[in-house]
Design brief:
This protein is an alpha+beta fold. It has one domain: ANL, C-terminal domain (GMP Synthetase, Chain A, domain 3), CATH 3.30.300. Helices cover 19% and strands 22% of the residues. It is built from three helices and three strands, in the order ββαβαα. The protein has a three-stranded mixed sheet, with helices on one face.
Length: 112
């Protein structure tokens, strides 16, 4: 699915205080295009599940690629690291969050 005005795009998960992670859309515009966040969200509406809709769109000049041409999502996560500390919460707090799900893990397997 290609949106007019978009040369390349990638999605990464960024930390969220309620949902642990939410999608962030990273876009490289075509040189002659002036696509906006609203344009992209309208384009995606109805094409993807509502919970897949990105909370934010960031525009950059180039998406990093590895030697094989794959998108380097690790580089993107590093580049947008500050967005992972949303709402004044530190990224370290999000790393600790899953521990609460382990409480009671010694009570046997989860029901199926």
């Amino acid at each position: 699915m290609g949106c007019p005005g978009v040369a390349e795009a990638a999605v990464i998960g960024v930390a969220h205080p309620k949902w642990d992670e939410r999608p962030l859309l990273i876009v490289v515009r075509r040189p002659d295009a002036d696509v906006t966040k609203d344009d992209l969200l309208k384009f995606l509406d109805g094409k993807i599940a509502k919970w897949w809709m990105p909370d934010d769109v960031q525009f950059i000049d180039a998406i990093p690629h590895g030697a094989t041409g794959k998108i380097l999502k690790t580089a993107l996560r590093k580049q947008f690291e500050e967005l992972q500390a949303a709402d004044g919460l530190r990224q370290a707090q999000f790393r600790q969050r899953p521990a609460r799900y382990l409480e009671g893990a010694d009570q046997g397997p989860a029901p199926t």
